[in-house]
Amino acid sequence: MNANNRRIVSFKIFPWQRTLQEWLSVDAPVLIYMAKSTIAALLALWIAMTLNMPDPRTAIFTVFIVMQPQSGLVFSKSYYRVLGTIAGVGMSLLIMGMFAQDPIWFIGFFALWIGFTTAMGLKYRNFQFYGFVLAGYTLCIVALPVIETPLQVFDIAVSRFSEVIIGIMCATVVSDVIFPRRLLDSLITSEQERFHNVLSTLSDTDSIFAAFDEANPTISRFSSGVVGLNATRVNSSFESGAGQKERQHYAHLNQEYMNLSTTFYSLKSIVHAMKEQERKEVLNALESLYSPVVSVLKTLPDTLLAPEDLNRIIRELLTVKNTIQVQLELDHKRLYESTHSAGEDEFISAAYLIIRLVNELHNHCATYLSLLKHRLSGNASREISRVIQFSTHTDNLLVALAALRGSGVLLLTMVFWLWSGWPYATLTITLAVVIGLLLGTMPSPLDGVKDFFKGAVIALIVAAVYDFYIIPEYTSDLLTLSLLITPVLAFIGWMTTRPKLAIFTFGFVFMFMNQLALDPYYKIEPTKFMESSLAALIGILFGGLAYILVNFWSCSLTQKRVAKILRTQIVRLCDGALNVERSALESTGRDLIQQFSTQGRLNMRSSRLVYEWLLSTLEIGRAILTIRRSIQRLYSHYLHPSVDNAMELIKSYFETPSVSGRDQLLSTLQKSLQELHSSPMPTEIGQRKRVEILIVELTLIRTVLINSETFPLLSEDSCN
Amino acid sequence: MQLDITLFGIQMPTLLLIFVMSAVVQILLDRMMSDAGIYNHVWHPGLFRTAVFVCLFAIPCLLIYR
Amino acid sequence: MNNSKRAKLLRFSITFLVLSLAIFLGLMLWDNYMNSAWTRDGRVRADVVMVAPDVGGLVGRVAVVDNQFVKKGELLYQIDEERFHHALHEAQAIAQTRKSEYEMKQHQSVRRLAADDEIVSAESRDDALYDAQIAHARYEEALTQVETQKLNLDRSSIRAPCDGWVSNLLLRKGDYVDRGEKHMALITSGSFWIYGYFEEHKLSLIHIGDSAEMKMLGTKYTVKGHVESIARGISDRDNVTDGRLLANVNPIFTWVRLAQRIPVRIHIDEVPADLILSAGMTCSVSIIPTKSIPRSALKM
């Protein structure tokens, strides 16, 4: 607070300081990053040339590939780049050793490897994906140029590897030593933002009790960033200073956030159902149940949270939980005094959801407080023992298609090579494979190919100016060469900071580094330049062609596919193992949706729809698990065959959804609920609780089913 | 001391082997120091880390070159 | 406040301590690596005598096997001698004829010298004397021919010119060898030396007489020696003379000037007992300077 005041005062004295401040926070990082990447690139060039590497361009190219504003990203990318290069180099040695004389086997094995790396690249996330991409295309770079002279493969492999290492060393050292920017800092910033978002959403009664609104972004706001933040957390493990404990905190926060958003959505859909039935009284009761939470959250300051504030909140939330419990009993008695009526279950489950929400919020706040304390003083208040695994789900069909595409484009270009006998066609193969591998996970690969092509063409023009005019005219040694290419390097650095230009930049860097005269000695011939440029451009076209040919994804197909996967998930939960963690359920689902929404070209409306399906699935899945656990522990004479019957029906409904099945399921659920109510409650506390849980969860399932009209029936086509 | 070592019939400078080994040691050490919170007590963790690696690499090398 | 200041100072000092240590060690390593006189590029060399026959003919017998050690004068192979025997006999027969001719002329000349002027003219007496001298010379010639044929016969067995090892023996019985054609390499024993190819900037660290250690590739053996001499010239790779004796200068230039390598000849003083030294072996050579290094001579 004090510091803030002082800053404000100083602003008044020096008005231009605000401008300076802004410059420091917005423009300076970009400039620093440009300087950093340029320095790293020149350092790599110098070392590679001094050590007499045959191909210094690889070192400088590597620098630009792994260079990122935050050090953690650089480390992580470098790590996977090294692994990918090792795999690719090893495979080249193997393949050249075994099949160099046998074209059929050679091409077959090559295609298998490319298909495998494409598939694995899709199966794994983030920079692991990048490692696989490299493993694939390193094979092209190492094995193809020496196909005529197989004995050289070892030399090329070793020098390629050394060059990559040089590039990586330069990039990591420079990014960690010169004005380092740590990934953890950005992680804490986004975590802060998300936490405040949660609090502000929950402190607003309307966000729950107002009607569903197409334009209301609450849900999508609540949904964003789970997968992304997890990736950031994983990558930050390469940075210095991030203890195991801090990362565990982040994992837990992510998990709790996912739980919160599921509960929030379920509550909202129940409220929505009540609104449609115009049950004012019940709604008012629920709203008053929730109001203590709002009043607690409203007391929070808008600025950064201090641990003291949080501490207070956590204490108050605990008391609020108890008041809600008491209030619930009262309301319950008041509303449904004597007889059991239709709306009672919904009221109970909504109230139950509110309590769950408060519970989860309490946990979330406690973990956040613990993180704050850990950062401030190093002693976390919360002992986090359980390690949370972020599970991922990969759709095998998607992976198989990608593998098919990767192998296909390789075979196509191989045929082109054999047919034309053009020595530069190896470059065509390399480019096509790179495109096939790299853009496979883009939302719209074809646009990516276009961007790549544009970048490549511009790079060719710039490289031509350098090769034929600037370098022969003005350079005489390494120093002048470095000075003259510095502007382009800095420009590339600037482009990498623009996310919109990502693929364009990649194309630019790839072609520029390929065609610039960065050999140990200057040897550029116009014909060679033209021919290799042409070969590369043809390769890009081939890569684009592969995306046109092997692409069966349409919006409705994606929707069907997602729905099917979600359905099978529920079916599996109905009769599979009981020891599924809720965290695994949540993270798998979210990862799946993330994957499909980048791969499967969904429009705005349908991607929101798919997200709602996900949340329904998560709620139903969680409820099923809870019911099954309760049944297991319930004494047999309290069990009702109708509950088992309902579970069976749920399973069969999700196996083969139909309108009649839905009606049947809803009525069965209703019936078993009535049966549970009408039969006498167990007197023992534990058993009684379990029966109550049964009722609540069955009601929840029923409510969710009633509300989600599009899932799993797919009655609405949102794609048009 | 030996300036060259032979692994699987390939002669390579010992420096290369030391480099790889010190990289492994560095990674382990980094994990340990990071968990122990040592990086909170240094001014520039990145610089510190690089310096530690240089030391790790240079000391065995100097023993060889003497 | 004071405490936090101290903590800050501590943070700075830890970092700078480690940093300066790293810089120090790094510089030392760089210095040692770049400026220590060693190279991975060393080769064992030896004097090789290329044995060629003095006479041509069919090889009748090869007396040695591959990689056999031979003493000086030992038989290496035998060229079929029959022809030389015949030639010797022929020469001997000619010599016999010449001898008789000479004796006849001599006798004639003595007889004519003894007769007086009326019986034999002075001219014919002189003629007889000259005839006898010519016949003597022809006899001498024939005798030399015999000696030559004897030498040829002798040279048809090819013998080792020095102690050494027969190397890469490809000659087989029945081969036809021409005179002067090289057919067998003999590695002279005791003539082994080592060429270490040192970067040019390291030459100033090397002095004649410095002791050297050679580590043989892939073994644990160390060979000891000393610097015998330093080559005084290598060819300019960027300037190859063309067919019309004009300079052919390379049109490309390198960004980084790489050091050329100059051969340094090392005399072998001590070979481990169980190490078999072969010409062409690879080794790394490190020179242990006996004199202090003139620092000013080095470019850092």
Quick overview of this protein structure:
The two termini of chain A are 53 Å apart.
Secondary structure elements and pairings:
The complex is a heterotrimer of chains A (720), B (66) and C (300).
Chain A: H1 2-13, H2 16-50, H3 56-66, H4 71-99, H5 103-123, H6 126-143, H7 153-177, H8 183-202, H9 205-209, H10 218-223, H11 226-236, H12 244-276, H13 280-298, H14 307-335, H15 342-377, H16 396-420, H17 425-438, H18 445-474, H19 478-496, H20 502-515, H21 526-549, H22 555-575, H23 582-599, H24 604-633, H25 641-655, H26 659-678, H27 685-707
Helix pairs in contact in A: 2-3, 2-7, 2-19, 3-7, 3-20, 4-5, 4-6, 4-7, 5-6, 5-16, 6-17, 8-11, 11-12, 12-15, 12-24, 12-27, 13-14, 13-15, 14-15, 15-27, 16-17, 16-21, 17-21, 18-19, 18-20, 18-21, 22-24, 22-25, 23-24, 24-27, 25-26, 26-27
Chain B: E1 4-7, E2 10-13, H1 14-36, H2 45-65
Helix pairs in contact in B: 1-2
Chain C: H1 2-35, E1 38-45, E2 48-51, E3 57-62, E4 69-70, E5 75-79, H2 82-114, H3 122-155, E6 157-159, E7 164-167, E8 176-177, E9 184-188, E10 193-199, E11 211-216, E12 222-230, E13 239-241, E14 247-249, E15 261-270, E16 282-288
Antiparallel strand pairs in C: 1-10, 1-16, 2-9, 3-5, 3-8, 4-7, 5-6, 7-9, 10-15, 11-12, 11-16, 12-15, 13-14
Which terms summarize this structure?
heterotrimer; A: 720 residues; mainly alpha; Methane Monooxygenase Hydroxylase, Chain G, domain 1; Four Helix Bundle (Hemerythrin (Met), subunit A); 0% strand; disordered N terminus; C: 300 residues; alpha+beta; 6-stranded antiparallel beta barrel; 4-stranded antiparallel beta sheet; disordered C terminus
The portion of residues forming beta strands of chain C comes to 25-35%
Give the end-to-end Cα distance of chain A, rounded to a whole number of Å: 53 Å
Gyration radius of chain C (Cα, Å) is: 37 Å
Helix amount of chain A: over 70%
Strand ordering within the main sheet of chain C: 1-10-15-12-11-16
* Backbone shape of chain C: elongated
SSE pattern of chain C: HEEEEEHHEEEEEEEEEEE
> In DSSP terms, counting alpha (H) and pi (I) runs of 4 or more, how many helices of chain A?
27
**What best-fitting shape of chain A do the alpha-carbon axes yield?**
elongated
Structural class assignment of chain A: mainly alpha
Q: How much of the sequence of chain A is in beta strands?
A: under 5%
Instruction: Write down the domain tally of chain A.
Output: 3
Element order of chain A: H for helix, E for strand: HHHHHHHHHHHHHHHHHHHHHHHHHHH
Query: Can you give the helix content of chain C as a percent range?
Result: 25-40%
Number of strands of chain C: 16
User: Which residues of chain C form runs of ≥5 with pLDDT under 50?
Assistant: 295-300
Mean pLDDT of chain C: 85
